[in-house]
Specification:
22 strands, 17 helices, Heat Shock Protein 90, formyl-coa transferase, domain 3, Ribosomal Protein S5, domain 2
Length: 601
């Protein structure tokens, strides 16, 4: 039998290796920026075309490379960072494996220009699909410029898997944020399609605070609480967000170990634990935390992108991070003092966000302006509902009667008793028991189905603002708004780009006319940021759900009997009235048999 095992050609092996290192333009941005940092640059410029799929170019004023190094750097496992295996125990640079440039050159057209500071001439290298097309001397400034064009030009199947420019730009900005936050002492500039997105000067004094504000906007200046804790084992510095600015989806959460961005569920738990009793469970605070530790105490060589590491003593790190954050929150008098212990049943139903409870407004129920007469027919069907459902489970019968409200009956609401409990739940009598409706979840289901119809029809009603309002966004949010602008307009947002990172709001959805545009957009974008689906239908569901979650009436809003009747009528006019879009029950039923049994004990 003939031999069938062969060594792969280098260019094929590099393309396969590129699959681990380069998934999208953001991967190229990460590797090139980190190389510039390792080269000792104090100014780095990133230039993008079409979110990086056409061009990713990084220019730095680092130490540059000799002609020999300029050619050798594109070979696999060519590195200046380590010489022997023991060097892995003392790595403080970003890269060290020597795989990035070889992988990038395997699936793109690459041009490298570099000159050392003490040399009169530099070197220009052209590589395409791992094959060197030329190497010549050149005149130019000291430092290095590397341009990566036509990413995946020779792997069209990979190129087809790239998302829209808006999505790809968001991933690029995520990587840019991580490197820029890790090095506030370095000046960074980012240009996309000839427009400047960021121009971040090298920090001085409170450099990290300046960098955070430069990346995410001036509003973050008031949201930050400094953290500083030093031990012989590890030093923890940085900032955490004030609890009142926690978001309903994950916001800006960054861990850096020795100036390297990492992900760690273990450390995340330590920080979240420090916020116990300060934020609701489904809210997420922001943090920017930096750990300085002896490299011998960590292992960074466990993941291709080096975003995961192992600590030799992870319990000690957990305890120190938790204590540092808790002490920072306490030092700034953020930990609340309670004069009494509320009943757990009350706390379970209340929205524990720090916003003051406001009086309910008619427009909070969507198009509801004056309460229409509720449906006696619908309520009669509801009253006749069976009671075969267990106590704590939502009603999901196989063939549940649809309750379609009718406006033709002259019936006063008082004939159908309802009761609001703790400003959170609505109690309504049934033939063989009673029903408890969560007013927030019920309204969320109503708005969700309404928003889906608006997105399908593309005909949302917008209420024009008397004076247009301006909302300043960070670069990632602006890119996301541009990507979903048609859908936002379908739901009633009248938006236009005003210049820079500012969006002008000319009109709001009719039911959200009194909402703060900046807050509503921020909540909606947070929902979208973590959505993985790319199909139009999936995005419609995310947008509809995000709007519904942001605009649904909250716990603590007092409703009149007419408003409670209308809410229940419209809930049972929905296609799926028994669950929220996220699958949580909107109502629970209790039977008389259950009550009788409780009293007979």
């Amino acid at each position: 039998m003939a031999d069938i095992i062969r060594l792969l050609p280098d260019h094929v092996a590099n393309q396969i290796a590129a699959g681990e290192v380069v998934q999208r333009p953001a991967s190229v941005v990460k590797e090139l920026l980190e190389n510039s940092v390792d080269a000792g640059a104090d100014r780095i410029v990133l230039v993008l075309k079409d979110a990086g799929r056409t061009l990713v170019q990084v220019t730095d004023n680092g130490k540059g490379m000799s002609p020999g190094d300029a050619r050798l750097c594109f070979e696999r496992h060519a590195t200046s960072k380590i010489r022997v295996a023991d060097d892995l125990n003392a790595v403080r640079t970003k890269g060290f494996r020597g795989e990035a440039l070889a992988s990038i050159a395997a699936i793109a057209q690459v041009e490298l220009k570099t000159r050392e500071h003490d040399q009169d001439l530099g070197t220009r290298v052209l590589i395409e699909g791992s094959r060197t097309r030329g190497q010549d001397p050149m005149a130019g400034p000291p430092g290095t410029t590397i341009a990566v064009r036509s990413l995946f030009y020779n792997v069209p199947a990979r190129r087809q898997f790239l998302k829209s420019d808006g999505v790809e730009l968001k991933h690029v900005l995520d990587e840019f944020h991580r490197v820029a936050l890790a090095h506030p002492d370095i000046a960074f500039q980012l240009l996309h399609n000839d427009q400047e997105e960021f121009n971040l000067p090298a920090g001085s004094g409170p450099a990290l605070r300046q960098r955070i504000v430069g990346l995410f906007g001036r509003k973050y200046d008031e949201r930050l609480v400094p953290v500083e804790e030093s031990t012989d084992f590890v030093r923890v510095t940085g900032f955490v967000g004030k609890p009142e600015f926690a978001k309903r989806s994950r916001g800006e959460q960054y861990f850096f170990v020795n100036h390297r961005f990492i992900r760690s569920n273990y450390l995340e738990h330590a920080v979240r634990k420090a916020y116990d009793e300060l934020v609701a469970r489904d809210n997420y605070p922001s943090w920017f935390l930096y750990l300085d530790i002896d490299p011998a105490q960590i292992d960074i060589n466990i993941h291709p992108t080096k975003t995961e590491i192992k600590f030799r003593d992870d319990r000690a790190v957990y305890a120190i991070v938790h204590a540092a954050v808790r002490r920072a929150l306490g030092r700034f008098n953020i930990v609340p003092s309670l004069d009494f212990e509320p009943e757990p049943a009350i706390l379970a139903g209340l929205d524990q966000s720090p916003r003051p409870i406001q009086a309910w407004r008619p427009q909070d129920l969507g198009a509801f302006t004056a309460p229409p007469r509720p449906s006696a027919e619908g309520w009669q069907q509801l009253f006749q509902m069976g009671m075969a459902t267990p106590v704590d489970e939502p009603v999901v019968p196989a063939e549940q009667p649809r309750v379609v409200p009718s406006r033709n009956h002259e019936v006063e609401p008082g004939e159908r008793p309802v009761f609001q409990l703790h400003g959170t739940y609505i109690l309504a009598q049934l033939r063989s028991g009673y029903m408890v409706v969560d007013q927030h979840r019920a309204h969320e289901r109503i708005l969700y189905e309404r928003n889906l119809k608006l997105l399908a029809q593309g005909a949302g009603i917008s209420q024009t603002e008397l004076f247009p309002r301006h909302v300043e966004l960070n670069a990632a949010d602006l890119a996301l708004v541009q990507d979903v602008l048609p859908e936002l307009r379908s739901m009633g947002f009248d938006l236009e780009l005003f210049g820079g990172r500012t969006v002008q709001v000319n009109g709001m959805p009719a039911e959200a006319a009194d909402e703060d545009p900046a807050k509503l957009l921020e909540q909606l974008l947070e929902q979208l940021k973590h959505e993985k689906g790319s199909l139009r239908n999936e995005r419609h569901h995310v947008l509809a759900r995000g709007m519904a979650t942001s605009m649904a009436i909250r716990a603590g809003r007092t409703l009149s009997p007419a408003e409670m009747h209308d809410l229940i009528d419209r809930l049972f006019a929905c296609e799926m009235p028994y669950h929220t879009p996220g699958g949580k029950p909107t109502l629970i039923t209790y039977g008389l048999d259950e009550l009788n049994e409780r009293f007979e004990r």
